[in-house]
Write a structure and sequence with these properties.
mainly beta, Pnp Oxidase, Chain A, 7-stranded antiparallel beta sheet, 3 helices
Length: about 170
């Protein structure tokens, strides 16, 4: 049985659970900082425009990693495959620790993970205040993909998309 409520400070967990009913893919966003490469896990990724090629993601203002991502002139969005839950969990908890992964700098100096399903290399196109988050819009400069299935996140669980039978 469904129950309605008004989202607010007292219903934050319930509101997050409702939001969690919308499954999404899992991405790692990376930026270069004076202290070295930095990353965070995000599932707020979305396409915005084909012409020009724009994508967006959002970062919590309360995040310890907020300022480097807000200030970055370039960033990379890595779409994870269904075998990379460990990568998602690592960068959700730690912004560094790149030594565990194969990576290099791209043409704009942004750290790029070599093992990923898809990659969007972006120039920051705009930043938009959105409550307790900032929406960051990127113009895609380069993109690539390989074959595989994406890592999904739905109702606080990682998994993968399973298509319905053709019937």
């Amino acid at each position: 049985m469904a129950s309605s409520f008004v989202p607010g400070p007292d219903t934050l967990r319930a509101y997050r659970d409702v939001l969690g009913c919308f499954g999404s893919g899992v991405t790692i966003i990376t930026v270069a900082t004076p202290d070295g490469p930095m990353a965070m896990t995000a599932n707020s990724f979305s396409s915005v425009s084909l012409d020009p090629p724009l994508v967006l993601w959002s970062v919590a203002k309360s995040s310890r990693r907020y300022q480097p991502f807000f200030d970055a002139p370039h960033f990379a969005i890595h779409v994870l495959d269904d075998t990379q839950k460990d990568v998602a969990l690592h960068f959700a908890a730690n912004g560094n620790g790149f030594d565990r992964f194969d990576w290099s700098h791209n043409d704009d100096g942004v750290p790029v993970l070599q093992d990923r399903l898809a990659l969007f290399e972006c120039r920051t196109y705009g930043r938009h205040d959105a409550g307790d988050h900032t929406i960051i819009v990127g113009q895609v400069l380069r993109a690539d993909r390989r074959d595989g299935a994406g890592l999904a996140f739905d109702q606080r669980q990682y998994g993968r998309f399973q298509p319905f039978d053709a019937d």
